[in-house]
Amino acid sequence: MGTMMDLDQSLVELRQTFRSRRTRSLEWRKSQLQAILQLLRKKEDKIFNALHQDLGKHPIEVYRDEIGVVEKSINHALSCLEKWMGPKKTRLPLVFFPASAQVLPEPLGLVLIFVSWNFPFSLAMDPLIGAISAGNVVVLKPSEHAPATSSLLSETIPLFLDSKAIKVIEGGAEVCEQLLQKKWDKIFFTGSQRVGRLIMSAAANHLTPVTLELGGKCPVILDSLSNLSEIKLAVKRIVGGKWGSCNGQACIAVDYVLVEDRFASVLINSLQRTIEKFYGKTLDEYQNLSRVVNKHHFNRLRSLLDDPLVAASIVYGGSWDEEKLMIQPTILLNPPLNSELMTEEIFGPLLPIITVDKIEESIDFINSMPKPLVIYALTKNEAFKKRILSETSSGTVTFNDILIQFLCDALPFGGVGPSGFGRYHGKYSFDTFSHEKAVLQRSYWFELEARYPPWNDFKLKFLRLTYKFDYFGLILLMLGLKK
Amino acid sequence: MAEKELKKIFDSESACTLVSELRKTFNTGKTKSYEWRVSQLKNLQKLIEEHEKEIIEALQTDLAKPEAEIHVGEIGMLKSSLKTALNELRNWMMPEKVKTSMTTFPSSAEILPEPLGVTLVISAWNYPILLSIDPMIGAIAAGNAVVLKPSEVAPASSSFLAKYLGEYMDSSAIRVVEGAIPETTALLEQKWDKIFYTGNGRIGRIVMGAAAKHLTPVALELGGKCPVIVDSVINLQVATRRIIGGKWAFNNGQACVSADYIITTKEFAPKLIDSLKHEIETCFGTNPIESKDISRIINSNHFDRLSKLLDDEKVSGKIVCGGQRDKSCLRIAPTILLDVPEDSLIMNEEIFGPLLPILTVDKIEDSFDIVTSKEKPLAAYLFTNKNKLKDEFVRTISAGGTVINDISLHLAVHTLPFGGVGESGTGSYHGKFSFDAFSHKKAVLYRSFTGDASVRYPPYSNGKVRMLKALINGSILGIILALFKLSKD
Question: Is the ipTM of this complex over 0.90?
Answer without folding.
Answer: yes
